[in-house]
Amino acid sequence: MTKRYCSIFWVIFFLSIPCLAGMEFYQVETCEFVYNDVQPEPLFYMEPISTPRNSRLAMQFVIISERNIDSKLTVNEVKTDQGELFNGSFDIYSVILVPVEANSNSNGTQAGKPAQGPNKVYLAREAPFEVFEPAFEQRNITLNKDQKSVLLIDAAIPADCKPGIYRGRVIISSSQQEAASCGFSFRVHKAVMPESYALKTSHWLTVEPENLTRNTPPESWSQEHWQLIKNSAQKLYDFGDRNVTFPTIYGQKPVIQTFVDAEGRYSFDYSMFDKWMELFLSIGYEKIECLCFSGHWITPLDNIYAVNTVDGKKEMVFPKGYCTTAWSDYSDKYEWPESRDKFAASEEYREKVAEFGAFIEEFLKSTYKHISEKGWKDVYIQQLIDEPRTVSDYAYLSNIARRCMPDIKISNAIHAYGVDDYEQFSPLVDKWIMESNLVLKPKTRSLIEKRESEGKETGIYLLANNLKMPNRLLDKPLIDNRALGWILYEYGLESYIHWAGNNYRGADPYKTSVGPVPGGSQTPGHPVGCNWIFYPGDNGLTPSMRAFAFREGLTDYTLLKLLENTNPDAARSLSSRITESLTAFQGSSRAYHIARRDLLEILDSE
142 lies in a domain? Predict the structure, then answer.
């Protein structure tokens, strides 16, 4: 009997020890959703799951009890068949149900509206349904009679862990008596993960207190609020984020407060900004991005208020959408892109842009001076326009930024909608986050390679209107989240953003899944789960099954990069087994387990 088949025999024996009567308790795939109304299949992949050292490995379990039990969860002594004790640790999560009341239909998603068109085939299932998704770290849970409970065991594999196959059991006990247990196993390889994942990721953090806790929110910028920010930032960091985007000058209580004197000159208070920078840098964040000034056009994203230095009162100096008040006149009269081009060249728009641009220039000069004094130039990144409509608008602000912040990198999400010569954006942006449809265009591959040779970074974000792609939605297969790591490697992309880590916009993510559009409407709204990957907990954000599955993809991406350093042909060969393109990739969890195992075995042999 070969070593591999011997291992399979022992895993089958180990996992098949029955629970006590009246209890079903078994392991399921971590990258597959568990639904309330569907009996999940036991873990199909029967080998110990392969993992590198200095990593984390999540394992999902299902429990169905015939009686109500107040129980405690523990993990028993974990060791190899040779008696080597596991020197890592385990976090235990309870995964809870949330409703999915609609199927994703771009920005027309609405409860009661069925899945439509060709995208329907890419959905995991039709709504409505309930799915186990938010994960809360806890060791005491209540098992309800004849109802599913879902657990997730998150193993921390130390860098000095001895390679080998480790076996253990998750134990459910009640009143000091063991009620049931379930076995698990994993294989630790020699390969050691670096301290940070190779893929640079960011889930945009919404920092208002009500978006960070499910309890009564504290006052903005109070000590309690800062603690929620810290806890949430740590959670995002634990799940791979090393970049954070922070709000700057907008709203009544901005991170950077604007002042205006009697002559109309602007100045800025950076005391809150300094606290923000120091907090995120202390956690380990590597890059901190100043949120863009504008969206689509050169116009304020939100109201900008300034404190008058004469009387101390706040006054609005630029209202939201200040430069685009006449846009509807053009969009109603002309078809796209004629409407875009005529509006962009209009005298009214250009005059307001010049006024707002002068304010931006003062802000950039002041901020550059401040970050230079603080020694933060290497970690600070400046955003300009989110999804700019024209190259000329982006060039206008990029030139201002280059002049005012000569050695600060510029970053933005750019989808180049309707821009045929979109390569003209490239010299203007150091970190270009491309929309996924743009990545598929024929000339983009060579553009990415050219940018890499110039030392420029290229990443990706996904719009939720194309369900062929691995979108991170609640009605798509969970494996899509893991697939992203392989797909981004295949395309040579270095970074990824999700626009909304926790952008609830007043919705309760435990009671609804349709993503609210600006203003809060869900009739219709964004696709289900699009507005959040993390959920509000008691003391900050808590992860989801999508976050855990995505983290597996981060590990895969990093291992492929490690292999690329010594054996690029093998890395490319393994990558091509999982993905052909953004719209053609493996949907089987087993395929990812095998690819991870083979990848690690090659690394072990080198």
Answer: yes
